[in-house]
Structures are given as C-alpha cells and as structure tokens.
Amino acid sequence: MSSNRFFGSALAAAIVAIPVLVQGCSEADNPLCCTEFKAGGEIDVNISGNAQAQVTAQAVADLSGLADGAVDGLTTACRNIATDLAAAPAERDAAAALTGTAAMKAWCDLAVKSIRASGTVTIELTAGRCEASVSAKANCQAKCDVSGKCDIKANPPRCTGGKLQVSCEGSCEGSASAEVQCSGSCSAECKGSCTAQGGVQCSGRCEGTCKGQAQGGTGEGIKADGTCDGTCEGTCEVTAPGVTCSGTCQGGCTGSCTASAGAKIKCDGECKGTAEPISCEGGKLEGGCQVDAKCDASCDASVKAKVECTPPGVKVNASASAIIPSLEANLPLVFQIKGRLEGAAQIAGSVDVSAAADIKPACIPVLVASAANAVSQLGETVTVSAQVAGSVGQ
Q1: I need a surface site. Which of 132, 189, 257, 360 has the fewest CB within 10 A?
Q2: What pLDDT is attached to residue 355?
Q3: 32 in Cβ contact with 20 (< 8 Å)
C-alpha cells in the first residue's frame, strides 16, 4: 500500500525529502530523530502541539501494536500445533528460517495441514467475550473536540449489536429470563462464586468450612479432589445449580443484583439507580460526542485496537485422540486473536493519516510506513486466523 493512500500526493512526494536518522537515533531534541512514536506504545505528546494530530498518531501506534501482537500470537499457536502434531522436520525447518508474516503463514499452513491429516476433528466452543472501553472512546473524543465541551454523560455511546455494560450504584435487573453479571447480592439463582458466612450449597472448591451430612449439612462434604459437595461457610467457587446466594454473588444472576451500600456493580441489564457506561460487549461502540469525522475515525481505530477479549473454552473431539491436548491448549489463543481482529482491517483502512500532517517532520515517514504495514498485517492475520478456524469446522 502506497503512502499516497494516507497523504495527499504533494505531501507524500515531500516525505522523501525529509532526512531521518535511522541508526543511533535516540535524542528527543534532535530534529532528525523520531523518538516520540513507538508501535504499540503511548505516543509522546511532544510529537505535535495539535491534539487531533496526536489522536491520529496514537491510532496508528495502537493498530501497529495489535497487528504485531496478532502475528506473534498466531505464529506461536501454529508453531506449537505443527510441532506437537509432528509436521515434517524439513517443513518445520523451512518455517523456522522465516520471520514476520511469512513465518506466521508458513507455520499456520503447517498447522492446518497437520490438523487435516489427523482425521476427523470437531470442536465445541464456550463463547469468549470481547469488550471495548467507553472511557477510552470518551478520552479520545475529548482530544478531538477543540471546543472542550465533550461530555460523555450528556452524549452516551451506543453498543450496536451487543450489550452496553454500566457501573451501577443500585440494583441491576435482566430483561425477561436473561441473567445479569453480578458482583453483589443476587435475588435468585447465582451462577458463579458465592461468599456467604451463613453457608451456600457448593459444587466446587470452598475457602472456608465445608459441611456434609455428618456435620448437619447436605451432600457428602469434602471430596477426594478437594472440592466441596455440601454447604460452604465462606467462599464457594462454583455454586450448586439453582442456588440463591445470601451473601455476595460473583457471576451470573437470574434475578436482580444489588450492590452493597456505597458500592457499584457491573451491570449489563437495566440499572435501577445511578449508571455510568464502562464497556461495550460483543458489539460496536458508536456515538458519543459530535467531533471531527477524521478524528473520530482515529478514535474508533484506537478503541478497536485496545479491545479486551477473553479466550473461549475449547473442547476437541478427534478421531486421533493424541492431538486433543495440543489443540485444546493452542486453539483458544487463535480464537481470542480472531475475535480481536474482527473488523480491524476495515477500520484501520478508515484512518486518514493526513490528519497527522502537523507532527514532527521526522515522524511523518515513520507514521506512514507503520500505518501501511499495520493495514497489510491485519489483512493477512484475519485471513490466516480464519483458515486455522476453518480447519476445525469453525
């Protein structure tokens, strides 16, 4: 991808005339050095006195970090699978001699080939979760707003296609039969951990006292594996099905979840009290303050690049049982990366780097090269992660 994709032709042509030190460039006050920009890091505000230019530079840094991390992660997961599944030594040596995206492609081609050569493979996924930060969006939009009037509370964002998580001071209720994520008192079934001094029916590890039938409780008490089948007076990591937690529930709640006095709970349902948006789960974070379109596109890119994803649980069914441990250990990382990459290549292409023309001259060619490389890497990692997922029927 050429630099003209990001800059006007006149500025792009001028870039080649900007002298930049590459070797031994470490002094921030040297006009030929660009120490203010680092892929995957926070940019130094000294890169420009223009806040909107800073936003664009940060978006490129964030996208570059996402792309580099995806390449490294997929390479590691695929190399592990190809090695564990005994790919041909000569092919492994050839892949090991490569670097960057070429290495990623080679190792993942080997992983896919090895999986398909192992017979029938299917998997069952326990859905992971990806969340985009509302505060990251708000802080970025505030830099885009030259009027200084950006107020995220007055202009709340939307979570299109997903759930808007809020910090709730009060109670949180799910709609119909839906459960809410609870960190407080749950009025109905608690699906997760429960801390209750009075005791709760427990089907997991108990930090406290586990009582069975002989001690006046129900169930057999502490089992051979150290878990509790009975009443846990303390904290039970996994509550028994259908149990109401009379103390503090951490997990899903099928009723309403109420925060203790002065505390706040994370709520993905209806907050009956004071609510403050914190994240968008499983959707696209949109809206907020009305700011310059180019600057807002850069904010969206930064937010997307910083999405936090919990890897899914993976259960593998295979005709060759020997491959199961490796796939169950490495596929969660592949699917976690795949979730973070969803839509990233398209949103990276929407960043207009010409908005960062007002930055330190020595950083312009660095920024252009980083932006083009990020778009290329993201496109390749999206393709590769889809190929690995496709090899196990996803």
Answers
A1: 189
A2: 82
A3: yes
Nearest to 198 by CA among 245, 254, 255, 250: 245
Domain holding 76, by residue range, is 3-130+312-390
Q: Are residues 123 and 32 in the same domain?
A: yes
Ranges of the chain whose pLDDT falls below 70 = 1-29, 175-178, 213-218, 261-262
CA neighbor of 188 nearest in space, from 264, 239, 261, 262 = 239
CA nearest to 336, candidates 313, 315, 311, 316:
311
Q: Dihedrals φ, ψ of 163, to 5°?
A: -115, 130
> For position 303, what pLDDT does the model report?
93
Using one digit for the tens of pLDDT, what is the confidence trace for 239-280? 988 888 888 888 888 888 888 766 787 787 788 888 888 899
Domain boundary pick from 227, 243, 259: 243
Contact 172, 255 (CB under 8 A): no
C-alpha 349/C-alpha 368 separation (Å) is 12
pLDDT at 272: 85
Mutual angle of helices 293-305 and 51-84, in 10-degree steps: 30
271 in a structural domain = no
CA atoms of 264 and 242, how far apart (whole Å): 25
- Residue 348 vs residues 89, 284, 294, 338, 376: alpha-carbon distances, Å: 37, 15, 12, 16, 10
| 63 touches 353 (CB < 8 A) | no
User: 32 and 109 share a domain?
Assistant: yes
pLDDT at 321: 92
Residue 33 lies in a domain: yes
Provide the Cα torsion 52, 54, 55, 61; round to 10°. Answer: 150
A 10 A CB-CB count for 277 gives: 23
Q: What span, in angstroms and rounded, lies between the C-alpha atoms of 83 and 110?
A: 9
Number of domains in the chain: 2
Q: What angle do CA 73, 75, 78 make, to 5 degrees?
A: 105
